[in-house]
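Entry for magnesium ion complex. Fields follow.
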Amino acid sequence: MFRELGQMLVLFGATLRALPGFLRRRRSIGEQIFEIGNASLLMACMLSFFIGGVLVLQAGSVLVERGLGSQLGGLVGISLCKELAPVMMAILIAGRVGSAMAAELGSMQVYQEVDALRTLNIEPIDYLVLPRIVAITIALPALVVFSNLVGWLGGAAVASFNSDIGIPTATFFSNLREVVDTWDIAHGLIKAFVFAMAVGTVCCHQGLQTRGGPRGVGRSVTKAVTNSIVLVLLLDYVLTRLLQPFDA
Amino acid sequence: MTPAPSPAPSVAPAHPGLRVAVRDLRKRYHTQEVLRGVDLEIAPAEIFVLMGPSGSGKSVFLRHLIGLESPDSGEVRIEGELLADDFRDRFRMAMVFQSGGLLNSLTVAQNVGLYLSEHRLRSPAEIDAVVAEKLALVQLPDGTANKYPTELSGGMRRRVAIARALTIDPQLILFDEPTAELDPLVALAIGREIVALNRRTHATTLVVTHDRDLAFGIAHRIGFLVEGRILAVGTPDVIRAHPLPLLQQFLAADFTPQ
Ligand SMILES: Nc1ncnc2c1ncn2[C@@H]1O[C@H](COP(=O)(O)OP(=O)(O)OP(=O)(O)O)[C@@H](O)[C@H]1O
Ligand SMILES: [Mg+2]
């Protein structure tokens, strides 16, 4: 496991070193971003709406009972943008996009496409890994912004339509605006940025590590997704801890 | 059915192929010893054919020559130099993989033009011209250029892979089973193309094959690899008369009922 972590750091380092050439890859990066959006936008939308909704259901009744219903907007707003949106979107991306990356690179490895690239003097890291990691690193924070908005809307909708809670949308959003500031959103975006690099690196690494035919590809995909999710949750704790001092 | 044996090149070529020297090359995967001390020298511009039973380590050997594997011990020298990190910048080497190794996400034309476009060696218009030329050379039908590799037959994929390797203008070219699963006429065309390429460019050529007609048709020398060791090496005539029993069985095997 530590060896894998080491190899992943090496891969990430090599990608960073290849980064100056990313403009050459802009077409390929653009295609990747388009694919990521295509694969995840609708899911992200539904997921976020219902997470916002369920947060309101859970927290709303407790707060309303204690006469704190007016605080609901802030609570939901903060939880979503600092914690739930980045983590859930990272997990979604790991499942929808990271798995596909691992499968694609894995089958390229198995069918000697990666070796063929090397014999053409084309570095697989430049050609395959860099565009994917850059694309995911752009797409995930964008997805988180989107998820925040949809999640807040979902929360507001449930808050006003659920008869036990009954907080008007205007109250919900005015409290949200009062509590959530730019830094809170940035906090979530910083997390998303780091998660994206982690998911991209893990999945590309697993893909390129694939050995042993189509079964190997299956194994790589499973490992890529589970490792990504574990790493995201670990990093989430670490980042929350690191970013806390700035939460004035 | 295969081209007549061509004499080893006598005149010093203007654009010489690379000299390959392999000494005591050993490689094991887990507990399996795949290469057990391979010694081989291939002269510039030579066509060397490597034969041997399935699983004897031929593909693994080729992968060492082009730096896709590193040996456990022993050495591979190209022009007297050990394969260093930058050898691909200094020597033009190409390999045609057993399965083709084409990128499935690119069209045939993009695959063939990949080397030139990635390294920005030509303008897009020139690349189109080179691609068309190389595809014609391997006799692919019109309209193949815009197909994807998955839409081609195995033999067509192999020919695309050869066309792609030619764009490197290699000084050393390695073929892994170039005629496997091809019909006899296409196999013949590929065999002829290997010889013509060798005459035209003087590239050192190493061909791994089970196809005896191809081997005796094109080779300057033939080597016989068994269980990770080269047990026989020599001109086609020497190999035909070689006393090694396994080699004779290998050459004589046919389907005629006894
Ligand atoms: N990456 C690898 N990991 C483990 N074992 C390997 C690997 N590559 C090759 N081998 C083993 O090395 C042996 C030789 O393989 P190789 O592909 O070189 O055979 P070959 O001579 O090319 O056979 P064929 O004529 O069938 O292509 C085989 O037994 C194979 O199982
Ligand atoms: Mg082989």
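NOTE: Chain A touches chain B through 13 residues (CB under 8 Å).
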